[in-house]
Amino acid sequence: MQSCIFCKIVGGEIPSAKVYETDKVLAFLDISPVSKGHALVIPRQHFATAMDVPDELLQEIIVVVKKVAKAVMEATGAGGVNLALSNHEIAGQTVPHAHFHVIPRHAGDGLRHWPQGKYAEGEMKGYAEKIKAQL
Ligand code: AMP
Ligand code: ZN
Questions:
Q1: Active-site positions?
Q2: Ligand 1 mutation pick, 13, 30, 111, max ligand atoms within 8 A of CB
Q3: How many domains does the chain have?
């Protein structure tokens, strides 16, 4: 998709700090890092969300994510790494080209996970049933 910023990175129209590539997958640094070394892993082909990516390609992407995550940890001295992926605007996706974030984490970096809630009595089972019915 021509107007997509990540497609432009794939096409070399705009620069990026590439760290790894295969014929189908590209990894480069996020321009506004949560912490330094924050990388993004994308399919070269445009798909809006992870759910749109064909299974075989998604498998290839996650293997690259694993490889890059190890390298990011080694290179930055991070004690851990968050692998994150937002799908659709409501979930915080700002670039509609599927991408995994690889975010190095350090002790005392102050980042917090999202707040968690509770189910009412019997509600969790109901959600599990509704989701199972879609699978
Ligand atoms: P998300 O908000 O999950 O869709 O992630 C999109 C990410 O793309 C953000 O973290 C941005 O900082 C990053 N980003 C946007 N434009 C560029 C760019 N030209 N090069 C590298 N990263 C970018
Ligand atoms: Zn794209």
A1: 99
A2: 30
A3: 1
pLDDT of residue 102 exceeding 70, the answer is yes
Range list of H helices, 1-135: 5-10, 55-76, 123-132
Mutate to test the pocket of ligand 1, among 7, 19, 40, 42 (most ligand atoms within 8 A of CB): 40
Tell me if the pTM is above 0.85: yes
Contacts of 105 (CB under 8 A, 6+ apart): 35, 78, 79, 80, 81, 82, 111
User: What CATH code is carried by the domain that includes residue 102?
Assistant: 3.30.428.10
pLDDT at 113: 86
Q: Which domain holds residue 116?
A: 5-134
Atom of ligand 1 nearest to the CA of 96: 4
Residues 15-58: tens digit of each pLDDT: 999 999 999 999 999 999 999 999 999 999 999 999 999 999 99
Structure tokens that stand for 9 in this block: 């990175």
